[in-house]
Amino acid sequence: MTSPRIEVDLGKIRHNAETVVGRLRKRGIRVTGVTKAVCGHPAVAQAMLDGGCTGLAEARLSNVRRLRDANKNCSITLIRTPMLSQVDEVVQLCDASYNTQIVVIAGLAAAAIRKNMVHDIILVVEMGDLREGILPENVGAIAQHVVNMPGVALKGIAANFACLNGIAPTAAKMAAFSSLSTEIEGLCGPYIEAVSGGNSANLPWAFGKQPVGRVNDLRLGEAILLGVDPITGKQIGGMHTDAFTLIAEVIETDAEPALPSIALVSPDFAKPRLVSNDAGARRLILAIGQQDTDIQGLTMPLGTALIGATSDHLVVGTHHSTFRVGAEMRFPMNYKALMRAMAAPDIQTELRDDRYPRRSPSRSKAKHLALI
Question: What's the mean pLDDT in 350-354?
Fold first, then answer.
């Protein structure tokens, strides 16, 4: 097998989706599967849909195109505010988009009219994370503008938590957000269909016993893909945390000191290492580096510890004697590491599934996808 590569267990992704969809259905909340961390991979998206997700959400049009090219005719929402330069393509490819800027909404409306279409608008409300969003006191006025604008339709509102500043949703914040939908209906008239309360960070709140109010949708990526709570990093009960594994190949096993013994050119290189200069430890170099993934987001195998990494080398220390040149090492990944690895052109992806024994189409010449 070729390395570096990512092994993807579609059955575990499907199971995670089924698990969280089933639990949230009892609370009246549907799930939109977020595929941005896997660059809109069609097979992963299908596993989410097979697990009960009612639609998909993406942040980049390149990923949406990939999904559409794979004949994904499900509902796809663009969850990053559209670029004004891309409004025609957004209207063509996406059923709905998240918005904060009236000038962009006007551009989407004009593009929809040119195409004889109606594009759905979901207004993002700033609820404390301080990334993007309309202030709650201003959302009603903007909603009125959208309702009166031909070419677009006000579909709903959305909130975002724990992305930029790690602000977790609280019961009070969620109740305030929920009440906004009723206030907007009072101002504008049309029924607010979608009240998307947030992302995977909302699951502790959603699994609780307090009322969920008008919230009827959550956008879940990390929870389905990795089976963990993004805030604590802890496993969600009943979910798989090993659907993705990064495999890298050993290219050097020479016994060298773990720490340099010569004078350093720059004090910036004098960083603490997680491995001591132990005579009993072996030093390995693997053919993967910072250009491929977030090295700090990799979990080192048992008995192995990180020494350091450069753009294309990963240096680890180990007491295992089984690793030789050509051997492979397997790494679980966190969300940041997964996101970067899936976008890296030199990392291949191999799909494992218990349901569909067929070959997956290639994303590009540099990205071989095979179901094994």
Answer: 89
Please enumerate in sequence order all residues whose Cβ is within 8 A of that of 348, keeping only pairs 6 or more positions apart, or say none.
2, 3, 4, 5, 6, 367, 368, 369
Q: In terms of residue numbers, what domain contains 139?
A: 9-226
Contact criterion met (CB below 8 Å) for 42 and 363: no
The count of structural domains within the chain is: 2
Q: At 345, which CATH number?
A: 2.40.37
**290 and 155 inside one domain:** no
Q: Quick: pLDDT tens for 182-208.
A: 999 999 988 999 999 999 999 999 999
- CATH number, domain with residue 184: 3.20.20.10
Closest CA to 351 of 362, 338, 341, 340: 362
Quick: pLDDT tens for 40-99.
999 999 999 999 999 999 999 999 999 999 978 899 999 999 999 999 999 999 999 999
Model pTM score: 0.88
Distance (Å) of CA 356 to CA 16, 109, 147, 226, 353: 17, 41, 44, 21, 6
